[in-house]
Design goal:
With 250 residues, this protein is an alpha/beta fold. The protein has a single domain, classed as Aldolase class I (TIM Barrel, Alpha-Beta Barrel), CATH 3.20.20.70. The chain has an eight-stranded parallel barrel, surrounded by seven helices. Strand 11, helix 8 and strand 12 form a beta-alpha-beta unit. The longest helix has 11 residues. The protein is globular.
Length: 250
């Protein structure tokens, strides 16, 4: 069964849902309490994004994130403005289980290699924001002229083994996932892939699960969970029964 990971997006200290790179929904003034609630709902891991950090290029909501790691007993993956070795070090110092770095880090190959060699490919993953398989700049949607496959292959060359692919166009919209793009990415790069953006319900989850054989083994879910599009409790209990990993493996 594909691994389902709840998303917590933090902006201005609040828990929000970004829609196509812009703030679309507000869920709570207390992201830490939201993490506790997902834990109570039986979540086994969390994906946290510092949206302010993603927009500025460095972690912003540090105190909130630190409190979150001290409040739940499950692994947390953190992304948001992590483009240098020092920013990655800070994230691990905050208690993260895994860190997602932006594709911008690939522009400095020595920095990228240092991150992977220091912390290992199981602890550092590559984030790619894209539209229809083409990489864009988060927040503006500006095309970079590079494909997700091209960026992933460069990351693989530098030691990365997992990609978190975010469909920015559909993020937070319930419009569904681009199965063809996900399949092509996984098949062409030979890396583990975590899907993100657009999942609207159980039908999308089952469609992604069909890609498990080519390496798409996990999905980050935000709005669909917050707005009860399917039973998270039931899914996580099935994972428990099948002794499925609680965090995506490489």
């Amino acid at each position: 069964m594909i691994l389902l990971i709840p998303a917590i997006e933090i902006k201005d200290g609040r828990c929000v849902q970004m829609v196509q790179g812009e703030e679309g929904f507000y869920y709570s003034d207390d992201p830490v309490q939201m993490a506790r609630l997902w834990r109570q709902e039986n979540a086994k891991s969390l994906h946290v994004t510092d949206i302010d950090g993603k927009l500025t290029g460095h972690l912003v909501n540090v105190d909130v994130i630190k409190e979150m790691t001290n409040s739940v007993d499950i692994p947390i993956e953190l992304g948001g403005g992590l483009r240098t070795f020092e920013s990655v070090k800070l994230a691990f110092d905050l208690g993260m289980y895994r860190v997602l770095v932006g594709s911008k880090i690939l522009d400095t190959e020595d920095e990228a290699r240092k991150v992977v060699s220091t912390y290992g490919a199981s602890k550092v993953v590559l984030g790619i924001d894209a539209v229809d398989g083409m990489v864009v700049i988060y927040g503006t949607g500006e095309p970079t002229g590079k494909s997700a496959v091209e960026i992933a292959l460069k990351g693989k060359e530098l030691g990365f083994k997992r990609v978190v692919y975010t469909n920015v166009r559909n993020d937070g919209t319930f419009r569904g996932v681009n199965i063809d793009v996900l399949r092509a990415l996984a098949e062409k790069v030979g890396m583990r892939v975590t899907a993100s953006g657009g999942l609207g319900g159980l039908h999308d989850l089952l469609a992604i699960q069909e890609l498990e054989t080519v390496g798409v083994d996990s999905v980050i879910v935000g709005r669909a969970l917050y707005e009860n599009k399917f039973s998270c409790q039931g899914l996580w209990r099935r994972c428990e029964a099948g002794k499925y990993p609680f965090t995506a493996k490489v």
